[in-house]
């Protein structure tokens, strides 16, 4: 019985350590899954509701496949928003999505939101205008932006008063952006990965050219750019169709809190060159991160000592019993 309990404790300790995975960009930055801001099939609980998200408009949830923000029909709007705000100072959000439909003409696109407002239907890719916070727009229909190839992905930082420049596809509002011609009807899982380090950097990477191959859309660093996302902001996704239409499907959302194991805080590390990833560890930091092997050795040694003591005590009791006779 004692041995079983010791084994359970050991596995629990290993599970806790394993929950904080090494971050892809830097071994000294760890990530913790944020269940409150993640979505995966079947999306809904047993009562056909989502514990952590609200949805509305024309959104359809097919529990085994996707969350369809809009169907391939004209004049649709759909949205899904987190019920609790994202308060982590450093985080990474990865979404897998699929934009597809019949015909050669299509529109309009979908948006990823981190805003003070939530669950409000409106004219900006299915959500409200004059928002406060960050909007990432995956625009598939070109209205009036000469010299720009569509689909186009762009970021806008809203101040709560500025209107989205819909007539010119957000040209007056653009913080950063890139053409991403292959994100519609892609032959591989299309993904977007947004990484934020408070007061340091904001990075958007896209996967649409090849599986497991990421293309940097933009990397913004402070103070050159305004990347101050509200401390209390809600994670949302929305989409809309006009006269032209598409299916806008969300397959999954995976969110992580990022923190530094060497800095002793939740503020993470600064950006590296080119991608907004944390900077490479200093020699002192590398020595600290290398201590995981020593930690596991001490854990095993500790439990080994307990197990050895248990068997020693059992043997001692057996000898005591036989000495009575």
From TrEMBL:
Q: Which domain of life is it from?
A: Eukaryota
Asked if the Swiss-Prot or TrEMBL record annotates the protein with the keyword Cell cycle, the reply is: no
Q: What Gene3D superfamilies has UniProt attached to this entry? A: 2.60.120.200
Q: What is this protein called?
A: L-type lectin-like domain-containing protein
Instruction: List the transmembrane segments.
Output: 292-316
Protein location? Membrane
Q: Which residues form the L-type lectin-like domain?
A: 31-258
Entry keyword set: Membrane, Signal, Transmembrane, Transmembrane helix
Q: How does it sit in the membrane?
A: Single-pass type I membrane protein
Annotated region Disordered: the residues are 264-288
């Amino acid at each position: 019985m004692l041995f079983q309990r010791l084994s359970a404790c050991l596995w629990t300790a290993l599970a806790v350590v394993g929950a904080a995975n090494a971050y892809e960009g830097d071994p000294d930055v760890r990530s913790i899954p944020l269940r409150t801001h993640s979505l995966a099939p079947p999306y809904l609980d047993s009562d056909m509701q989502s514990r952590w998200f609200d949805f509305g408009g024309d959104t359809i949830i097919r529990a085994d496949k996707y969350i369809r923000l809009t169907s391939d029909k004209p004049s649709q709007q759909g949205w899904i928003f987190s019920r609790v705000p994202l308060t982590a100072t450093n985080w990474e959000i990865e979404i897998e999505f699929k934009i597809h439909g019949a015909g050669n003409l299509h529109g309009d696109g979908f948006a990823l939101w981190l805003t003070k407002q939530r669950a409000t239907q409106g004219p900006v890719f299915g959500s409200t205008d004059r928002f406060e916070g960050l909007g990432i727009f995956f625009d598939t229909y070109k209205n009036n932006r000469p010299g720009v190839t569509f689909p186009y992905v762009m970021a806008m930082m809203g101040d709560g008063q500025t209107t989205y420049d819909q007539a010119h596809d957000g040209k007056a509002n653009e913080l950063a952006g890139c053409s991403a011609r292959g994100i519609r009807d892609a032959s591989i899982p299309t993904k977007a990965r947004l990484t934020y380090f408070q007061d340091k950097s904001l990075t958007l990477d896209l996967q649409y050219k090849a599986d497991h191959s990421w293309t940097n859309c933009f990397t913004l660093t402070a103070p050159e750019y305004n990347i101050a996302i509200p401390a209390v902001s809600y994670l949302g996704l929305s989409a809309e169709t006009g006269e032209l239409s598409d299916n806008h499907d969300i397959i999954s959302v995976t969110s992580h809190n990022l923190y530094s194991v060497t800095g002793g805080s939740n503020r993470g590390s600064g950006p590296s060159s080119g991608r907004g990833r944390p900077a490479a560890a200093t020699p002192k930091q590398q020595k600290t991160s290398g201590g995981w092997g020593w930690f596991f050795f001490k854990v095993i040694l500790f439990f080994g000592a307990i197990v050895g003591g248990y068997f020693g005590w059992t043997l001692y009791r057996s000898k005591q019993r036989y000495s009575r006779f």
